[in-house]
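Before drawing any conclusions, I needed to go through one protein's amino acid sequence and its backbone structure tokens, quoted below without any editing.
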Amino acid sequence: MYDLIIVGAGTAGLTAAIYGQRAGKHVLLLEEGIYGGQIINSPEIENYPGISKVSGYQFAMNLYEQAASFGAKLETGKVIGLQLLDGKKQVKTQEAVYECGAVILATGAKKRRLGLDREDALIGRGISYCAACDGAFYKGKTVAVVGGGNTALEDADYLSNACDRVYLLHRREAFRGDDSLLQRVKKRENVTILTSTVVEGLLGGEQLEQLQIKNTVTGERKTLELNGLFVAIGQQPENEAFRDLLALDKEGYVIASEDCKTNVPWIFAAGDCRTKPLRQLTTAAADGAVAALAACEYLNA
């Protein structure tokens, strides 16, 4: 029996564990894979307050060791459901059932992949899914952004301030993002927009060096010489296992505001898995603290 079970050991989950343990609660972290979340794939972090530069792996290691030092327990397991059975709050994994007083979901959201060969191998070696995180590493270089929504347009606009050349590639003719954003990007002299264009191949050695692209209207294929590719084709939240219990929005994010409370009183949501306008390390850590203290308030009531 645990006071608090946290599903997911990324930045939000580990921060919640620290705050939960410091509040005197018995905390269990359940993580399907490796603790740390998506940030472990970032070669360097330069935008976390108080830390001038650190690798994503080292950041995750430090956070885990801090949570463990306070007594938080971490177990590996894929959570397949939550339930209230005979008055008992339960977290089910493929191997076991755990009882607790409250749950924090910090399951995160995976960036949608292009589904190309060598894509995973080139993450951190030319491929990124976060312009705000990694854009500074490409100052004065040539990059491409793939996507047609607001995130892609914002990324192209953001990168144009630092990069020598930015290609914006979209598979359709019309963009889904706001027209005001599109017009801003079009005014950037160093941004080249290629519509009806898909990426077919990732070329290079240990680092990404070229993209193989195709025009879906004319069938023309060509290669782009570049240093980096930013993929902005959406995210996939990890919340399907909880759909029958929790209120989710149309994209699958847990509906929870800045207090991290869900429609179920004993379940809280923190980090990238919940509805929120900005998904960064700082906001994930903030959510972890807020959710933990809210859960403790619920447990103490």
About this structure: The mean pLDDT is 94. The CA atoms of residues 121 and 206 lie 8 Å apart. DSSP finds six helices and 17 strands in the chain. The chain has two domains: 2-111+235-300, 120-231.
